[in-house]
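Example protein
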Amino acid sequence: MITSKEEILQDKEYIEIVSELLKQEKVQKMKQYRQHHNVSCFDHCLYVSYNTYLICKKSNLDYVSAARAGLLHDLFLYDWRKRENGRKGLHAFTHSKEALKQALSITNLNNKEQDIIKNHMWPVTPEFPRYRETFIITFVDKYFAVAEAFIGKNIKIKRFMEQY
């Protein structure tokens, strides 16, 4: 999986696909919120978006919709660790609806992009994904969530794994 922002930003085709979104104030605001460990929400979404784009492109799927929705899949703009502003429900169950609402406020989304954002937390969210791209982003998102949660702990994990 690619986690180098420099490498991602050098991919001209990918940047062309998401450039309109990268200019959006709400997307830039994701840099202010921590997602997992010390990774910002923006960086998390960038990694998920880019790696989903690569997988979908290699698999002859709709990599444009996957890249766009991947960048917006966690556009919820709050600190999920705090209960503020009357926010109800557990973040894992509710943030995809908020991300979709925020995404629709800044750009038009096709049905596939909406499904990707709305259902990227499946099976935590009850609606079954309608597209293969949604399943791919679901797994890429989980991969990065786990990897980011273990940043700082990876030295211990590597030492443990090297024993076997």
Q: What stands out?
A: Residues 41-58 form the longest helix (18 residues). The chain has one domain: 5-162. The radius of gyration is 16 Å. The chain has a mean pLDDT of 81.
